[in-house]
Structures are given as C-alpha cells and as structure tokens.
Amino acid sequence: SLQIVIFLACTIFIRKLDLRRILIGGLAGIFMNSIVGSYRASYMLTQSVRELFIDLLRRYFVFDTPIFAYYASVTHIAASSIAEGNLRYKSLLAFIKSIFVGSKDILSNVTALISITYFPNAGGGVIPTHFFFWLGWFGVIVIAGLLVFVLNRVGKCSTDLFILITIGVAIFTPRWYLYSPLAFFRGPFVFIPVLYTLLGIVDRVLDS
Q1: Going by C-beta distance under 8 Å and a sequence separation of 6 or more, which residues neighbour residue 130?
Q2: Rounded to two decimals, what is the model's pTM?
Q3: Which among 4, 88, 158, 161 is placed 20 to 30 Å from 189, CA to CA?
Q4: How is residue 200 annotated by DSSP?
C-alpha cells in the first residue's frame, strides 16, 4: 500500500522532482522504514528517535529483509545444481503462467519450492538467482539485459502509459529485486496497462 501511495505521489509531483529532493526523500524514507520495522518487530515504539538513528547507523542501513533475501538467493544457486532440469523448466512455465492469470502452484514460486524440496529459507531472493535456477547463466544474462533495457527507458518515454510503466518499475524495485520477479512483470507490465485501459474506457464512456 505504501508503494501505491508513492506511485500516485510521483505521478502528481513528477515535474517538481529533482535530484536534491529525491535524495532527501530517499534518506527520509530509509529512516521512516526503520521506524516501521521497529514497530513491526514489537508492535510498540520502545526506542526514541535518537536510538533508532544510532541503531540504523550500527546496522549500516541494513535490515533483516535483505539478509533473508540474500540467504534465499544462495539456496537458489545451490538447488540449481541438484534439481532435475524437468522440474526447473516446469517451474519457469508455472511462473510465466502466474504473471498473467495468477497461480497457487508451488512450482511458480522458486523460493517456496526450494524451501520445501531442498533447502529451508525465510523467503525472498534477488532477481538474478531466480533466473539462474531456471536457466543457469543464460537466464541471468536474459534478465540483466531486460532490466538494462527497461531502466534505460525510465524518463525517456513520451506517452502517459509508458511513463506510468517506468515509474511502476522504479517504485516496485524493492519487491522485484528482493522478493520475486513476479512484481517486476505483473505490476508494471500487466496491472498498470490493464488499469490504464479500463480507466480510459470509463473516461470515454463518461465523456460520451
């Protein structure tokens, strides 16, 4: 929900954003996230603002989530060497299906599949290791090339739809980089175009 709020704010104030404001907002966001993380850990704010800031410096701005995600990534790599090729390809196909129609199939979730079948983990995993599990180094090259292409388009698109898609890619970065590539494909490239199309239809109906 916070990402949606940020997304809407970017669409409203995009012309007022500059590097200085982005940096200030980013640092403020990191600090606010630490407050939210502290609250979620105990459901009460037991630390002062000064203590939160000191704790943030002590952790080098690192939270538990990326630690768990990187560990899950290691399990992706380890499992790729022992999983049968047939299982890996089935998992990839199940993932592609989940992008468009959703899926509760455990095969579509690499991290959960590996946690149940091979190595327990706490969830997450950086995006390249998902593709390494499916397709080896070829998969890493494919997703890297796709990311470079999409990120190079950020800020260079002229139509409203493509501007929304590139903003969506940026806003959802924590989710698709640390959790699942599903957030990279489904959010910006499926949900946003569908929603944009539906809103356009509604707008034309109301104007007619």
Answers
A1: 76, 110, 111, 143, 180, 181
A2: 0.74
A3: 88
A4: H
Residue 181 main-chain phi, psi, to 5 deg: -65, -10
Tokens of 53: 């800031």
Q: Any alpha helices (H) in 47-119, and if so which ranges? A: 49-58, 64-80, 85-101, 110-117
Mean pLDDT of the chain: 82
For tokens 């701005």, the residue is 61
**8 A C-beta contact, residue 125 and residue 180:** yes
Place of tokens 């790599």: 77
Output phi, psi for 81, to 5 deg: -85, -10
Burial class for 187, CB neighbours closer than 10 Å (0-12, 13-18, 19+): buried
As separate numbers, helices (DSSP H) first and strands (DSSP E) second, the chain gives: 12, 0
Q: Six-digit token pair at 36?
A: 């939210």
Mind listing the pLDDT tens digit for each residue in 145-160?
Answer: 998 888 787 667 678 8
Tell me the C-alpha distance between 66 and 11, whole Å.
Answer: 28
